Amino acid sequence: MDRKSIERILTFGYMPHFPERNILVGYAIYLIIGTALLALPPAHRHDIAFVDNLFTAASALSTTGLSTVDIGSAYSLAGQIVILLLVQIGGIGYMTVCSYIINRTTRHPSLPTSRMLGATVGVPAGMSLRGLVNNIVHFTLIFEAAGFVALYAALRAADTPAAAWHALFLSVSSFCTAGFSLFSDSLCAFADNPGVTVPVAVLSYAGAMGFIFMTDITDKLRRPHYRVSFTSKVILLVTAVLTVGGTALLAHDMDGGLMPAFFQTMSAMTTVGFNTVGLGGLAAGPLLVLCVIMFVGASPSGTGGGVKSSSVSAVWGYVVSRLGVRRRVTFLGREIPAARVETALTTVIAYGLVLLAACVVLTYSEPYSLSESLFEATSAIGTVGLSTGITAELSVTGKIVIITLMYIGRVGVLTLGTALMARNRATRATASPADLAL
Fold first, then answer.
1. Are 305 and 270 in contact (CB under 8 A)?
2. Per-residue buried b or exposed e for 362-380, using 16+ beta carbons within 10 Å of the residue's own CB
3. How many CB atoms lie within 10 A of CB 140?
4. CA dist., res. 354 & res. 420, Å (int)
5. Is 414 helix (H, G, I), strand (E, B) or coil?
6. Residue 80 neighbours by CB under 8 Å, 6+ apart
7. What is the pLDDT of residues 121-167, one digit of tens each?
8. Half-sphere exposure of residue 386, counting CA atoms within 13 Å on the CB side?
9. 406-426 residue pLDDT tens
10. What crossing angle do the helices spanning 163-175 and 129-157 adopt, rounded to 10°?
């Protein structure tokens, strides 16, 4: 089989002029396939409504973790396997999987395939796209395997039934920042068990900080004189600020103090979405703090969602430069190109507008407070998965709104806008995540 045939099979035969449209169609096809598989009788233990199967498939593919049913009891082993496969595909990206297979089988991916991958993975100057694809797959397998071993030991020590399956599911879900758990209370039962919470946190940070960061760190360890990219420095700084700041702000509002505050901050920032405490009883203040952290989210080329640390740093640099009446936009002493600043501003504004529109619909369609609706919507578009407990009680309209937000959060609001609005490449603004890699 030649290269073009393999590419057409992996991309469902859809090779448009705009790679962003392929991304939209590709994820939509995976969503339809996932929903159809979950609707099959062997996949569930009792009747599940179509909208709930669609919701679960969208949540898994977008690596969100919100669920209208208890997946541990509602779905059979076959259904849980489907969910886990969707999480894995969504976590590293279906175009990354396609590119990796093409690299291994043909050695020479075509220009359209490279463009489609470039539209989903931001690559800093000087870093090979092909090398990054290989690293993404290899790092994923290594971290998930190590996570499985650590979690299996902890769950077996805790006398957890089917410890191996729970460990595998939890490891993949953590690294892909999906937040799906086969336990009905997420990880509340393991709140005081560091053997579970520590591996989950490590896997989540690794997935959320992204493959650019991990590639940089690996190269630095191999070659002491290697210069870490500016993108990795930004990722490390924003991650540290959000972790420390969020933990400090939440510590006095959560029972147990520092550790639950850290875990929930980590969960919101990495967009993994696990919780070790119930969030339904939190006041508006800590819910708003978590909303801000979820909105910022993870880092470029990672498995998490949100507007990304690179966008926030560029917007911060823009605001500081304008307040200082300076023409040059800088961050950490480094000038940020105008195109990247414009893309970051567009990302933040577009996410904000979509989130606002969703909140308006939810406040009219659902009997919940504004803070609960805002939290649910922010969690969905940030592909986080944290909830105050209202997900299962949403109306059909509310579920469709959340499904739409999860889909937009996975493909990216700029990818969606470009795919729907661009008419010719010569006049459209560059909107790929590559612009967000500083």
1. no
2. bbebbebeebbbbbbbbbb
3. 21
4. 15
5. helix
6. 71, 72, 165, 169, 182
7. 555 555 566 666 777 888 899 999 999 999 999 999 999 999 999 99
8. 38
9. 999 998 888 888 777 765 444
10. 140
Q: Report pLDDT for 353.
A: 96
Q: Are 19 and 115 in contact (CB under 8 A)?
A: yes
Beta bridge partners of 331: 334
Return the axis-axis angle of helices 194-222 and 163-175, rounded to nearest 10°: 50
Tell me which residue of 7, 13, 14, 16 sits closest to 424, measured CA to CA: 16
Going by C-alpha positions, the residue among 241, 307, 238, 299 that lies closest to residue 270 is: 299
Binned at pLDDT 50, 70 and 90, residue 427 comes out as: very low
- What long-range pairs does 388-394 form, CB within 8 A, spacing at least 24? 388/279, 388/280, 388/282, 388/287, 389/278, 389/279, 389/280, 390/366, 391/66, 391/67, 391/68, 392/67, 392/68, 392/69, 394/68, 394/366
Per-residue pLDDT, averaged over 278-299, amounts to 93
Residue 228, token pair as written in the block: 């870490």
- pLDDT cut 70: percent of the chain above it: 83
Please report where in the chains the tokens 């920032």 appear, as a residue: 269
- Residue 216 confidence (pLDDT) above 90: no
Interatomic CA distance for residues 438 and 430, integer angstroms: 15
SS3 category, 18: coil
Phi-psi group of 63: left, alpha or beta (phi > 0 → left; psi -120 to 50 → alpha; rest → beta) = left
The pLDDT tens digits for 339-365 are 999 999 999 999 999 999 999 999 999
Angle between helices 111-118 and 129-157 (to 10 degrees): 50
72 three-class SS: helix
Element (H, E) at 4: helix 3-10
Burial environment of residue 2 by CB neighbours within 10 A (0 to 12, 13 to 18, 19 or more): exposed
Look at residue 228 and tell me whether its pLDDT is greater than 60.
Answer: yes
Cβ atoms of 145 and 233 closer than 8 Å: no
Q: Could you identify the residue written with the tokens 């560091």?
A: 194
What predicted TM-score, i.e. pTM, was given to this entire model?
A: 0.89
